Give the backbone structure.
Amino acid sequence: MGNENITIADVAAALGVSKTTVSRAISGKGRIGDATRQRVLAYIEEHNYRPNVIAKGLAQSVTFNICVVMPDDYVLVDLPFFHEVIVGIQETASENGYDILLCVSRENETGHLRRILDNRKVDGVILLRTFLKDLHIELLQEKKIPFVTAGSTLYRNTTQVDNDHSSACAELTLLLLSRGFRRIALFGGAESFVVTQSRLLGYHEAFAQALIDEVPELIFMNLDREAADAAVETAISRQAECILCMDDMLCSQVLGKLRMLQVSVPEEMCVASYYNSSVLSHNVPDITSLSFNERELGKEACRLLLEQLAGADAPKKLLLSYQIVEGSSTCR
Amino acid sequence: MGNENITIADVAAALGVSKTTVSRAISGKGRIGDATRQRVLAYIEEHNYRPNVIAKGLAQSVTFNICVVMPDDYVLVDLPFFHEVIVGIQETASENGYDILLCVSRENETGHLRRILDNRKVDGVILLRTFLKDLHIELLQEKKIPFVTAGSTLYRNTTQVDNDHSSACAELTLLLLSRGFRRIALFGGAESFVVTQSRLLGYHEAFAQALIDEVPELIFMNLDREAADAAVETAISRQAECILCMDDMLCSQVLGKLRMLQVSVPEEMCVASYYNSSVLSHNVPDITSLSFNERELGKEACRLLLEQLAGADAPKKLLLSYQIVEGSSTCR
DNA sequence: CTGAAAGCGCTTACAG
DNA sequence: CTGAAAGCGCTTACAG
């Protein structure tokens, strides 16, 4: 309605008060008479006044932007994860008047993030991926920019949010053990990832807790596509009852290989996964797996960042819960 | 090195010149002595001065941000497309000093974009998806915000970039015809999508150009998962020689169904696709398909938007080229 | 070629 | 409770 560019000065003039007063009425900061505040608020509402966030930011030295760093080089299967987390971040960001500035960057290429920080375009950063040696983290720590990692990191003094992989994996493994499985083949990805270590830990914990001996010859780690195919045959020959995959990429690879070998699931081989992305969502039979809430993870990451911006407490690590999804892929 | 927050005033004071002069040296606008400019530039370089983009923006009424609107509700197979386009956008955006403000939104839910526009946080917008009735487009036109669509739209006065689907589909179809295929089954998605129409057009054009009659009973449109499975059986019973899929989702569905039916590709049935995402990239045999450069699409979309921001010409529509990838899935 | 001054649209001590 | 004034860090007519 009407001119979209009415400023605080216009409002002040129209109401015969000072800009200071208008500003206070809007922000709620500073003493102001109740009647005056109402009058200003009413006028603002009626004339559809929109504060200029940029100007506000300049005066307060804030931008109301948070930077989300997402991978350029990604594995296809991870994309839905990143996307869901971003949706979660946006949800709590926008509730708090913040927007997302996107920074797509390759492993440890910090140029783009550095430019954004140098230009002071964001108040804080969320990293969607981390590495053992992580130049993004080092840059942020050096520049003392508040940040949160979605996923775990071993860097000290870092606020991080992650799924509770190790507990989840332990619980799923315990479920299988309680169902009577003993020869459970574990198929894992690169051991250099922090998340792989967490999952492995959960696996071990379950056996320890159940007082059952692991079968070392059934543990296959650092599997790529080809190695996974070969491992399926090996697992079969070693009489595995169940193949437990660390992620869905591996799992769909395993399912494909079993189909090719005409080994039926679950009659001849049971299958379960430590993860549950949409890649597997329409599988027949439905796969016993773990379900994490990635959107929630994004929301929590954002919430922790906003907390830091509001005056940080000590850095903290938050682990999110999960659900076990028991499907018919492990029926016997 | 040293204090990171040196301002234009500091530089001016240190050099005994005015802020005006410093500003001119940096921007290159306005008359300034060569010696003075060099002196300023040298000082700036040495002391690692970084202009405050926000302040600059406030003075010039620009933000150096472009908003990228991406879907919240997506089909898994489309995610890599969006991601690649964004990477392309970022590339040319950052070359020109712009950053990406992300807006994830559901079909025709304009609330989030509206907030961003009301807050004047961006100079222009790129839409990664469009609808026949598109409230985002209508909002942008109403507010007179420069924007570009990645993908075609029928809205008038709209700058758009798209892959040249119809030409590409025509050419691929012609290739199949020239290889002697006559009974080509077409498997298509929802006819309400603009892109589906373009592809259909290409299919028709090819037959017309080759002066060969189409086989209407082999054209299957509006296929969902289940319908696609059924259509495979129908196509076989109607003695199709080749199944031509409009997208990779359909194609991987078709391949799965053929495998299930123990129909070998290409010996018993040839397969081709009007698209080529990473979903099919490791398929055996390799699928004859079309290859588009999505990153380039993003770069062009961004370039066109920046052109508009620099003082728009007339709206234009840009069609990007493609490549035919002939794989062994259509060998006979 | 260079500078003083006003302005972009807000906020915030400091006075009253 | 309210306001005049300075300030955030830049740009840009307008003079000289």
Notes: Residues 7-9, 19-20, 23-24, 27, 29-30, 51-60 of chain A lie near DNA strand C (CB under 10 Å from a C1'). The longest strand of chain A covers residues 65-71.
